[in-house]
Amino acid sequence: MDLEVVDNYSVMSEIAANLVAGLIQEKKNAVLGLPTGSTPEGMYAHLVEMFREGIIDFNAVVTFNLDEYVGLAPGHPQSYHQYMKNKLFDHVNIKQENYNIPYFHDKNDPGKVCEAYEKSIKAAGGIDLQVLGLGVNGHIGFNEPAPCLHTSTHLVELTEETVKANSRFFDSLDQVPRKAITMGMGSIMGANKILLLVSGEKKAKAVRKSFRGLISTENPASFLQLHRNLVVILDREAASLL
Predict the structure, then answer these.
(1) Looking at the annotation, which residues are catalytic?
(2) Least crowded by CB within 10 Å, which of 29, 162, 176, 207?
(3) Structural domains in the chain?
(4) What is the SS3 string spanning the chain?
């Protein structure tokens, strides 16, 4: 594990963007696993700027998002489809057929949706670099603390803690979806390289538990310690309890 503590969120975002950009420059058809939420916004902004300056080209890049809410249409303002379009996809030259986000509606069989997503990842040759954030309860993607964890993409019931944390993006708590489709821990750990970004004092306990505690399904992020090529970038607040 390569763990780096930097001064602040801005520096963390810049370093993360440089790592992603370096991969794209080295491998034009790089396969990226991408997260949503507040943490990667700075990284995406830097990547958009790099594209505009001609430093990187997304034409052959393939992406797979970690997760998506169940019950929100792709055009919903709080869907992760819309998040990715707003933060990255609409501002670079990535092909629509090259970005992948799991989507489930009532007419679909969730098992088949999840199975198809796994097959798409394998067909792309696997994920070269998986970028992750960290939940305050140690969740990765929407892999929540539980007695056991799914290895592959699956339908999940969100914990009240996660629903409450995500309510800041909605007008009220009642509007937050209670279910999502997420890559499993096996899907995530199968990436050639993992980049974990963590910012803010409120994540400090989760960081300490994940990297100074026992490996447990009750703290999904703790399994990242086992990955052969893990890079962790923390700002000083997130690292304050290490």
Answers:
(1) 67, 137, 139, 144
(2) 29
(3) 2-235 (3.40.50.1360)
(4) CEEEEECCHHHHHHHHHHHHHHHHHHCCCCEEEECCCCCCHHHHHHHHHHHHCCCCCCCCCEEEECEEECCCCCCCCCCHHHHHHHHCHHHCCCCHHHEECCCCCCCCCHHHHHHHHHHHHHHCCCCCEEEECCCCCCCECCECCCCCCCCCCEEEECCHHHHHHHHHHCCCHHHCCCEEEECCHHHHHCCCEEEEEECCHHHHHHHHHHHHCCCECCEHHHHHHHCCCEEEEEECCCCCCC
